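The passage that follows is intended for readers who have already worked through the single-chain material. We present the inputs for a multi-component assembly, then the predicted structure in tokenized form, and finally a short commentary. You are encouraged to pause after the input and sketch how you expect the pieces to fit together before reading on.
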Amino acid sequence: MAIKERPRPGGRSARVQQAVHDAVRELQEARAREALTVPQIAEIAGVTPSTIYRRWGNLSELLADVSLERLHPDEAPADTGTLAGDLCRWGEQYLEEMTSVPGRQALDDIMASKDASRRECCCRYSESIMQGLRERALTRGESVPSLTAMMDGIVAPMTYRLLYDPASATVENFERWVDTTLSSLASR
Amino acid sequence: MAIKERPRPGGRSARVQQAVHDAVRELQEARAREALTVPQIAEIAGVTPSTIYRRWGNLSELLADVSLERLHPDEAPADTGTLAGDLCRWGEQYLEEMTSVPGRQALDDIMASKDASRRECCCRYSESIMQGLRERALTRGESVPSLTAMMDGIVAPMTYRLLYDPASATVENFERWVDTTLSSLASR
DNA sequence: CGTCCAAACGCAAAAAGTTTGCTTTATGAG
DNA sequence: CTCATAAAGCAAACTTTTTGCGTTTGGACG
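Having made your guess, compare it with the prediction:
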């Protein structure tokens, strides 16, 4: 029961995808942040440019595809004992990741993609992380905000700053957002 | 005392910029949402492609430039008598604008630009609008949230939804954000 | 297993887009 | 009015992208 993403996910197809992704990552870190071309990637991946064009359409979509993979949350945030602690811990790491050069780049690549579903995917990632922290807090017996409240109160401001005004995407601000969101809960 | 944006903003240069911008807008609404090329734009604008490349670098930057102009707030939001009313009124219009096809396109174009200063510009636009509404409310004697609170509580969630999950960028949600932001003020 | 269909790739030529060196135009200052 | 130079035009390289066609290779079915 393999996940049937594409009509034919078997051997070669998967190998090509892997090779191309690897090539992109290699070139991205090695050099050429700006000048990164499809023929170049094809060369290193050992494929023909036309293969890349046929599968991804253009460079932007390919980069977005690779970057989305990069941003995929691989492990659950650490357990610090409280929801506030977990959130701050996660935010700290996330901000560090996203304000780094490669992190920014990844975010930009995704935003540059015409395919809206990729952005929604980011949204789902964040939601599932928030949901995870919520449930953990609930089993501890903490009173927790709704998922919506967390998205609007924490994820949205953080993401907005990251995208539009990176200078204000700081840990201090993040803690403030957490604070506000959690305390607004108490006053109901 | 003309604004000295560029070394030589005089006649021809300005005319070319105007012609190119017009050509982009014309092509955008006329047809070809996707297939929109520099040589095509150059043709209609009556300029050489190389002129466009030298001034804007590439298609993405040109589109972003045109779109930023489109998003520039031209008039102050209507005065409804209360801050809540002004906000909702503005949000309603803004959401309508941004969920339309051309509006979405403009947003996407700006997000696709490599030049971060353009996004910051969007941020400043929003800030100045919020600040305008704040001051208007202050002269009325209303108690108003800080600019930061409005950006975090209203603009950020709205923008986040517009970008990542357009389906949830609704007027109902917007009113909720306004509500939450204004009422959190009272409980201090 | 062996056969067959079609998806995906390779190849190479053609088309389209982009860059660049040089020339010409025309703004803005003196 | 004259001059220096930013910006545009032009055309020839150059690079990337597209496309048609033949070949490979998963995966289904007998």
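Commentary: Residues 8-13, 37-39, 49-50, 53-54, 58 of chain B lie near DNA strand C (CB under 10 Å from a C1'). The interface with chain A takes residues 60, 108, 111-112, 114, 116, 119-120, 122-123, 151-152, 155-157, 159-161, 163-166, 177, 180, 184, 187 of chain B (CB under 8 Å). How closely did your sketch match?
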